[in-house]
Inverse folding.
């Protein structure tokens, strides 16, 4: 891709200041053992201790001097970081550098769309590039380690952290999560522009009951292995340096004390050799869980389970020695944890390059980074509706545009959640961009109508209707403030907040075409807003460059290509609703008896009925993978190269895709498979491949997918991962509910 070269050039400026130190595995292991052999117990426990230095700076300095701190988080001032590191490198006995962590989730300074938005691009290269840019910027101030990517499968839009996820699908999350790991870590972890990744939250956190944050999960082992674990396994395969445990207890066992996931799966089955950090105080939160009676028991359970580093709660430091003396833990356990941590510090080159070069040329908000963030925002936008081809707008014929809605000029809110370092002064909003790019030729009338998303006052709506009346088209920018999604921000009601729906309905009464542009942290139940709008462009909070991206899309300088990485429910009551649910005994057959179809005092019968809601039906508002373009695509001629395959064969399937509309565009072709019969019930469909296919107007291409049959393996009735012989259905199409279908057999 074009931008990658620019970004690499930008990063080179930075790289030249500090050399990369590549050491072989043997070298690293030797150094680790040598250092470990010199360490006291206190120094070992110190490596396992991560602090957030919000307390007395002199106490922290003294703790580092004594070797009691292995890592700090949440400091991003390069001078301060160098000062801290100087204490570790010059005043501590063994001169072990501290590793500096930070939540760099969707950009450091240059903010990209929230991860859920990036997932809508179905573009691993772009997602990798976003993580690379984030790494370059964060590393330039001295950050060594990000707590990302978040690869929790998220099937509940009430959960505020769905914003940080890559959506509901295991395969999409695996591919994009791995891309993020690669982007953060670069080709060599010791490269000064690389930062260690930390796939999180291990595991199941997204399945909290009722979509409430921190709530318990009940994921049986088969579902854990088939649905929730694969993205993490993929992250290990591409070399993720660290892992973070999750807050939830699954079936009664908090992840931070869960030997099965940490020892059995992560270490034994996947051979992970990086280190595991707890989540924020999740070691001592096992007391509130009722899983440990005090910090000492919490430390014991976490160390035994395999949590190498404790984030902020200090129980390893305070109880480690006593636990050892009492024989509750062994020195071998401590040594293993310290080995894992030191291994990553060596791989990062921190011993050789502990300091950040403050004289390096600035890379924050570099033009190439902003350009890349804009492209990401373009590819992340999903066109949900475009009645009468109201979009794209024609700049030559439109004389007046009415801009309404609280998100038109919300510099802070369009950045989304988890942007500790983003600065709203750099945000380009849609309103500002419209004025800048079209203000001379088109009259742009602005009346927000409501001030912010939760604003329930309706007295501003009349002014919005007034500007709508004078305009050729109304652009209604609605959505959610950034603070309504993210950690600890779950919602039970997913309608547009405040008076936003009233605003859209009111401007629609003018009869002017209404284009609703949503910016939100999650899928919202916007059925009624879609109905009264002529077009709907959905953006998960699009970041710093959201304005220019959206304006290019509205005026057709860019053509929408995003697809939903998560199902949109009609009603909250449909949740959980996701496309790859298991086959039921009475599957939906395409017809439903709805609430008002039932006569009064009808006799009770269930015959002929299937799994659906009387008042909401079966279908969601929009299915996974859905997204329109300004142009149209037609699929034809689906052909399998062989319809009878063996477990070690590779399936090859081709389809012709034609751009039958008037615009050049990109279609995300999606391949789904159904394993028709199994030793356990199987999902009705699973995404197995996707590809972005650029097509000029009128152009036709043959797209060929290859899929090793081994990728159809799943955990069977005996909990063994295997491909079961039998019949399979396969679809290739434009979303999870459309497509050409064929069948094949695995012998
Ligand atoms: C979150 C993590 C985050 C950590 C450090 C916790 O509250 O759950 O995702 O990385 O804080 O900020």
């Amino acid at each position: 891709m074009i931008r990658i070269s620019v970004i690499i050039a930008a990063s080179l400026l930075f790289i030249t200041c500090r050399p990369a130190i590549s050491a072989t595995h043997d070298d690293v292991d030797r150094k680790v053992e040598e250092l470990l052999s010199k360490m006291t117990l206190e120094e070992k426990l110190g490596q396992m201790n991560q602090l957030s230095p919000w307390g007395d700076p002199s106490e922290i300095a003294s703790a580092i001097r004594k070797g009691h701190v292995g890592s700090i988080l949440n400091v991003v001032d390069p001078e301060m970081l160098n000062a801290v590191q100087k204490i570790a490198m010059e005043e501590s006995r063994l001169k072990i550098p501290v590793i500096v962590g930070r939540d760099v989730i969707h950009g450091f300074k240059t903010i990209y769309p929230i991860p859920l938005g990036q997932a809508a691009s179905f573009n691993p290269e772009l997602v990798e590039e976003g993580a690379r840019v984030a790494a370059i910027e964060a590393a330039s101030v001295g950050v060594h380690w990000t707590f990302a990517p978040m690869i929790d499968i998220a099937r509940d839009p009430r959960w505020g952290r769905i914003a940080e996820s890559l959506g509901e699908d295991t395969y999409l999350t695996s591919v994009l999560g791995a891309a993020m790991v690669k982007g953060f870590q670069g080709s060599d972890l010791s490269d000064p522009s690389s930062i260690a990744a930390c796939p999180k939250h291990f595991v199941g956190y997204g399945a909290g009951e009722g979509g409430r944050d921190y709530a318990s999960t009940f994921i049986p082992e088969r579902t854990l292995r088939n649905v929730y674990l694969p993205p993490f396994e993929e992250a290990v395969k591409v070399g993720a340096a660290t892992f973070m445990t999750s807050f939830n207890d699954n079936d009664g066992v908090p992840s931070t004390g869960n030997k099965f996931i940490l020892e059995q799966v992560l270490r034994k089955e996947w051979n992970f050799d990086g280190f595991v950090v707890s989540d924020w105080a999740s070691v001592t939160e096992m007391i509130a869980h009722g899983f440990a009676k005090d910090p000492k028991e919490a430390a014991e359970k976490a160390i035994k389970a395999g949590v190498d580093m404790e984030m902020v709660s200090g129980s390893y430091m305070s109880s480690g020695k006593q636990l050892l003396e009492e024989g509750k833990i062994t020195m071998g356990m401590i040594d293993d944890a310290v080995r894992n941590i030191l291994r990553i510090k060596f791989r990062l080159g921190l011993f050789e390059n502990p300091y950040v070069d403050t004289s390096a040329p600035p890379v924050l908000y570099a033009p190439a980074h902003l350009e890349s963030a804009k492209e990401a925002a373009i590819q992340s936008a999903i066109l949900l509706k475009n009645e009468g081809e109201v979009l794209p707008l024609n700049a030559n014929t439109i004389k007046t545009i009415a801009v309404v809605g609280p998100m038109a000029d919300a510099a802070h809110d369009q950045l989304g959640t988890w942007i500790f370092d983003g600065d709203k002064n750099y945000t380009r909003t849609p309103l500002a961009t419209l004025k800048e790019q079209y203000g001379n030729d088109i009259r742009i009338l602005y009346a927000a109508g409501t001030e912010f998303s939760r604003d329930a006052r309706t007295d501003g709506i009349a002014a919005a209707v007034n500007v709508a009346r004078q305009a050729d088209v109304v652009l209604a920018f609605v959505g959610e403030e950034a603070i309504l999604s993210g950690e600890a921000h779950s919602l039970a009601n997913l309608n547009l907040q405040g008076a936003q729906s009233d605003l859209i309905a009111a401007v629609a009464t003018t009869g002017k075409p209404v284009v609703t542009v949503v910016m939100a942290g999650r899928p919202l139940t916007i059925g009624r807003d879609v109905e009264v709008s002529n077009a709907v462009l959905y953006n998960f909070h699009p970041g710093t460059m959201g304005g220019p991206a959206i304006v290019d899309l509205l005026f057709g300088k860019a053509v929408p290509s995003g697809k939903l990485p998560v199902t949109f429910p009609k009603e909250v009551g449909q949740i959980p609703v996701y496309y790859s649910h298991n086959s039921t005994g009475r599957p939906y057959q395409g017809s439903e008896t709805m609430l008002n179809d039932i006569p009064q005092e009808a006799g009770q019968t269930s015959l002929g009925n299937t799994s659906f809601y009387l008042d909401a039906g079966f279908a969601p508002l929009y299915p996974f993978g859905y997204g329109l373009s300004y142009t149209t695509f037609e699929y034809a001629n689906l052909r399998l190269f062989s319809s009878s395959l063996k477990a070690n064969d590779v399936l090859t399937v081709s389809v012709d895709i034609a751009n039958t509309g008037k615009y050049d565009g990109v279609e995300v072709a999606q391949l789904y498979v159904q394993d028709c019969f199994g030793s356990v019930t199987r999902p009705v469909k699973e995404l197995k491949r996707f590809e972005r296919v650029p097509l000029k107007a009128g152009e036709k291409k043959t797209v060929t997918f290859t899929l090793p049959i081994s990728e159809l393996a799943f955990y069977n009735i005996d909990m063994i991962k295997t491909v079961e012989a039998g019949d399979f259905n396969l679809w290739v199409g434009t979303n999870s509910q459309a497509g050409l279908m064929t069948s094949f057999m695995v012998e």
